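Thread title: Can someone regenerate the structure for this chain?

I was given the following input by a collaborator and told the matching structure tokens would be attached. They weren't. Posting the sequence so someone can regenerate them.
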Amino acid sequence: MLSLFRCRAGPFGGRRAFASLTQPARLRNTPTIVKATSLETKNGYLEARNLEKAVGAVHRDGLVVVEDVIPHKALDQLNHKMVQDARILQGRGEDGPFNYNTGNLQQDAPPVAEYFSPTIFTNSIATQITTVVLGPRPKWTFCSANAAMPPLPGDAPSRQPVHSDADFRHPDHPFALVVNVPLITMTPENGSTEIWLGTHNREGGIDAQEGAHGERASGRIREGLLAARRETCPPCQPVVKKGSIVIRDLRLWHAGMPNPSDEVRIMLAMIHFAPWYRNPMRLQFAEDIKGVLEKVESEGRLGLEIPVDWIAREEALRTYLNRGFGNSYDFNQAP
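Best answer:
Regenerated them for you:
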């Protein structure tokens, strides 16, 4: 079943506009939601009609939400640990791995087996969608998260500039999809991400951006282009239900928003690259995850190429909170 997302921002109120002879159809500014059936969730794949809707939304809008695909129990266990970790990172202030401002943190999940649920990290419905768009066995080479943090006493909540994660010259067709998994329901009240649908393939790529690749503030969209885009298709800050996955084209314009609540809001981000895309990054996991992935592969439910540097569990736990901020990663491909 497909429904249109009810979004709390934007003048269109979540309604579709119909074309007429005198007025062109407005662009969609609210995400498409695909509601997975209980059978689809149990089997781990979407049937043809829902798959078509999901893939169509990714191509047209650069984003789709698929609801009811991840058990809440697995999310709760991971969220409990990652909220504790987020508070540690927040305490580092300007020395922490923040993205644009200290209210939005780059944060890795603990890369050890007890927190590595395949229903979250290698969700087969997510991989089904990315495979159809990118080609067989996409490469999973990035695994992290962002945390929208409640402000510390005396701090004013601040938003990110609108930006693209593809802050380098890149193909003009899909080459990388981000699988986002919110650990709790995301709302405007706890920092749901602002999204600009349709900007993944319409707005000029790197020429629309400011800031050099690799800088903390790279990928910022030029203000004149933002103003023009607002006139035709304003952004949306949607509600995304717990248990959902979000598939987003890496090129899509978006912005982390303030979290004025007292609740830490964490959203995982796994990037699947097309099998032909020559990104050299590798994941780093504790050795006890190897058996988990081998089991998923033996059951025919993995569907990914996963370059991994395996490290001892003790080293993984000692180092995983000491990784870089988002723009320090290089999502470009080798020549």
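The chain has eight helices and 15 strands.
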